[in-house]
Write a structure and sequence with these properties.
This protein is an alpha+beta fold. It is 42% helix and 18% strand. A 6-stranded mixed beta sheet has the order 3-6-7-8-5-4, with helices on both faces. A two-stranded antiparallel sheet has the order 1-2.
Amino acid sequence: MANKTVNGVAVEAILKPYEYNPEDVQRIPGRSVKPAGEVAIVESDPQWPEYFQTFKSRILAAFESTAPEEAATAAAVDGSSNEVTILAINHVGSTAVPALPAKAVIDIDLVLSRTDLAAEPFYVPRLAAAGFEFRIREPLWHEHRYFWARAPLWCNLHVWGPGCPEVERHRIFRDRLRAYADDMELYARIKKESAAASPEKLREYNLRKEWVIKEILIRAFKELGYLD
């Protein structure tokens, strides 16, 4: 298993969970303040996949609007083109699982050819034009960038570079819930219990359900042959 890869990502990297450190988070100056509200878990909405397609179409349209003079300007600055291309746009999280209760928030993994600081002048304005506000930069977490949109529904947009283990973890977790009703029902129950225990604190809600995510992922990893 040491040399095995999945979609170009080492299995060893997929199995290694990220240890969150708030000191590694760079919050973007001037970002708006999210309105206060309770963590509300609602029944699955058959329109959620349609909302995902709406956001996906916006992103694709924004990246198709590359002006030749912009690429030339970027090349003049650092000697090479900073043009960024889309590698994947994935609907992940609970709204990507039919029949699973969830927060009414669409989660998307956007995989780009580059996400580093030098590439931001290319993709950040395009995502802003598509309605996404730049919120967080996490260089130590696979050069993760986080954006959000508020319409037509709340959307969490996670931007990653190529070969990112977290993208594979999200896909594996989503596909496990789609395929196994027992795991989906377990996750739904823990989500509701966690929201009831921490109705106004999203961070605490996420921490309360962390153990069940790890448990379900371990079962998925074992079935895939990544763990004994």
